[in-house]
Sequence to fold (307 residues):
Amino acid sequence: MGIIYGPLPGFVCGGLGDMLGYTISGKGPFIAIHWSIANGLVGFIPGLARYFGARSVDSIISFVKLLILLLLASSLPFIFATGVEFWLGRISFHQALFAFFLPIFITDTLWALMLIPPLMQACKLLVVRIEIRTILAIYYLLIATIMVTWLSGVIITMHEKLRIEELYTLGIITLIILIVGIAVSAVSSKKITAPLVSLTNAARHIADGNYSDVEELSSISSRQDELGTLASVFLKMTQAVAKREQDLQKELTVLKIKIDHNQQSSDLKKITGSNYFKLLKKKAHNLRQQNKIDYAQHPTTPKGEGI
Fold:
């Protein structure tokens, strides 16, 4: 709700949802107002996605921003709520950590990491491009691996009467490994997909007739793999097309000059060949002849005065 409609609707939805739960259970809506505020913050913090460029996820960077907001939404509100419980003296620090915060933080984080991306895709807020496809494939594979490893460890040690502290310590270690793995996979995915994105952008520039914004192809062409070969061939093709277009522009300029000259000659012929021009020419000739006659009859009259 926060991601779709913004921070305030997210806060209202989370807070009222928590109060509704207390009401249904018969405890009353204001039995634990600090927990209702915490659940409101769970909706408020992801709602900030629109201000941090992560509401519409179309790149690895915006995807990482979204994950950071989800981690903050799964931790900060419940640090506040358990802190209030500890400050009021209702629970000890040990209970606050192992009975309240860690169970909520671990489960909420895992649910958020697993469910939010497909829900955003369903709402058309996640644009599945090559960057997103790559990071999502590694992302869910990593989550599945970590979850299976953690559950296997829990099942194997069940006969040893695993204490709750050990269970959630193992859980937080697993979660930390998952977060580090996601960070590493994001960096790796960016390195894998960045050349393809650059090639795509260069293709768009060339399609628009802009050959000056393809310098990034030079750095890609230095790679010793298939992408480097592709970028090198693409760069040579681009340079050849640019040179050919320049030559065509020069030839077009020369041809235009010739066409303009021929057009001028054709227009001049049309003008001089018209009856009106011939009539003007005849009148001018008659005026010159009349001027000569008048001058011969009146030699003292200045030239042009008779006219």
Notes: The chain has three domains: 2-207, 216-264, 273-307. The chain has a mean pLDDT of 80. Residues 2-207 form one domain. The radius of gyration is 40 Å.
